[in-house]
Amino acid sequence: MNWLNSEAFVLLDQHIMWSDMIGNVIGLIALALGWRRSLWSWPVQFLSGVILFAAFFGHLTGSAGKQVVVMAVALWGWWQWNRGEGKDGRISVRFATWRERAYMVGAAAVGTLAVSALFHAYPTLSWDPWPDAYIFVGTIVAMYAQARGMVEFWFAWLLVDLVGVPLNFANGYAFSGFVYVLYGALVLWGLRDWWLRSREAGQPVLEGAPA
């Protein structure tokens, strides 16, 4: 598996690693499957996490740790979507309640502070504690919202992209940066699709979702 951390090619003076390229392309496919409300979004996301863990392990420990959490949330999301699968084999989508939005915003704020404090206490975990913590927690919040079928999932990804693009370029992960740009375009399309579907469906609620 050592080839995963070998150089694939050079793009704009940036050395692109096979693991960085493959992991992020698979992550992009997972997001596209999420747009289509396909259960396959989650196992594909899990596979992306495995490959990106291999990319970051040993030199970006915090980013590698993030992939472990992403894999765990992907398993939970797959379970959630299996429970809420609709008649057409796809998940129903809805807007979050104001209470759910408040919980997610609060969890994101507290989580970012806590993870940043951890990164500051252990500098080897992250070169950029604040943006790394923001992306780490934002990704989890986005995946949680996706697992619950919330349209706000796409807004969370947009907020992650705003920091993810410059951070990846700054850390030498050019391909990740380019993929985050593509994420942004896909997120806008997915947001429109889920928004319209939630209105057509009359705000369906997933089984077990809070009222």
Account of the 3D structure:
The protein is mainly alpha-helical and 211 residues long. It has one domain. 69% of the residues lie in helices and 4% in strands. It contains seven helices and two strands; from the N terminus they run ββααααααα. A two-stranded antiparallel sheet has the order 1-2. It starts with 6 loop residues before the first strand and ends in an 11-residue tail after the last helix. Residues 203-211 have low confidence and may be disordered.
Task: List the domain count as a whole number.
Answer: 1
Kindly state the number of beta strands: 2
Contiguous helical run count: 7
Give the H and E element order.
Answer: EEHHHHHHH
Q: Report the uncertain regions.
A: 203-211
Let me know the average pLDDT. 80
Percent strand: under 5%
Key features?
two-stranded antiparallel sheet, mainly alpha, single chain, globular
What is the fold's blueprint, element by element?
Layout: E1 7-11, E2 14-17, H1 18-35, H2 41-56, H3 61-83, H4 98-121, H5 129-147, H6 152-170, H7 174-200
Antiparallel strand pairs: 1-2
Helix pairs in contact: 1-2, 1-7, 2-3, 3-5, 4-5, 5-6, 6-7
